[in-house]
UniProtKB/TrEMBL annotation:
Designated name of the protein: Protein FAM33A
Organism: Thlaspi arvense
Family recorded in the similarity comment: Belongs to the SKA2 family.
InterPro entries reported in the protein's UniProt record: Ska2 (IPR026762), Ska2_N (IPR042091)
A single BP term in Gene Ontology: cell division
Length: 83
């Protein structure tokens, strides 16, 4: 009888933990989306400023933005893979 109760309690705990993980992933994705929006806006503004000053664009900034987009896509795949 005690074993059955412990198993039921563990199943409840796993369900609660799963829900909390989904909430955390959702919050992380929201944060990534907001950061991405801000960074893309700043990136575009810098590109316009450089262009108006006659400066060439920086390839490192392009690489950094691409890396950030990959991180966002990674978290999105994780969130979508959880049943």
């Amino acid at each position: 009888m005690k074993l059955t109760q412990r198993i039921k309690k563990l199943l409840e705990d796993v369900t609660v933990l799963k829900d909390q993980c989904l909430e955390l992933l959702s919050a992380k994705q929201d944060l990534i989306d907001k950061a991405q929006t801000t960074l893309v806006g700043n990136y575009n503004l810098i590109q316009k400023m450089n262009s108006s000053l006659g400066e060439s664009t920086n390839g490192d900034a392009d690489d950094a933005l691409a890396d950030f987009n990959q991180v966002g896509a990674f978290f999105l795949r994780i969130a979508n893979s959880i049943p």
